[in-house]
């Protein structure tokens, strides 16, 4: 069933990881996996651009169907394989609303952690960095994570929207793993998020799709003092 699926992805890309987790959760692990090198700009190759004019990952093809954007891929998989594997979107309207809300909200972490601290740091020479600007960006990440810490306190379930693993978790976990990778002291600052991270990192879909270069390269320390 998955043999006619191809996913173009990049190691460490949170959107790619979301799509990969969803593929695993839906029992579609036999898809064709094409790992692209950002350093060699393989995501801008003719092969990818024919499918995704933006030259971004993840790029996904299922038979003749092409789907880009990780959220679109995830929703496509859930709707196409609704009765297979993990149910990523609940039937109950109120619970569905919460899952979709949390799923969309994850962009706030991405914008502040990657769009804020990470991009600013890698694109600005050390001698040109404004420590006051960086301090504000780190404060914004801390305030955002405090909100998610509070969400976990609102219920007794092990997942971000309650008792079941959903699309919201497939979306949130890659971002929490990213800040942990960058040495944010999660356990000291946000104990509920730390426990959430420890639980989900052992989930088979997460372990199988773990960014390969994270296993062989040192962790950056961009967020050690957030």
Distance between the termini: 44 Å
Number of alpha- plus pi-helical segments: 9
The main sheet comes to:
4 strands, mixed
Going by helix content, strand content and strand pairing, the class is alpha+beta
Task: Note the beta-strand portion.
Answer: 5-15%
**What portion of residues is helical?**
40-55%
Report the average pLDDT across residues.
95
Question: Which residues sit in consecutive blocks of at least 5 with pLDDT less than 50?
Answer: none
In N-to-C order, the SSE pattern is EHEHEEHHHHHHH
> What's the alpha carbon Rg, rounded to whole Å?
18 Å
Bulk shape? globular
Strand order of the largest sheet: 2-1-3-4
Count all strands and give the number. 4
Brief overview:
This protein has about 230 residues and is of the alpha+beta class. Helix content is about 50%, strand content about 10%.
Give the helix/strand layout.
Elements: E1 5-10, H1 14-25, E2 32-36, H2 46-49, E3 59-62, E4 65-68, H3 70-80, H4 93-123, H5 131-152, H6 167-181, H7 186-189, H8 191-200, H9 204-208
Parallel strand pairs: 1-2
Antiparallel strand pairs: 1-3, 3-4
Helix pairs in contact: 1-3, 1-6, 4-5, 4-6
Structural notes for this entry:
50% of the residues lie in helices and 8% in strands. It is of the alpha+beta class. It has a 4-stranded mixed β-sheet with strand order 2-1-3-4, covered by helices on one side. A hairpin with a 2-residue loop joins strand 3 and strand 4 (65-68). It is globular and about 50 Å long. It starts with a strand and ends in an 18-residue tail after the last helix. The model has no long low-confidence stretch (mean pLDDT 95).
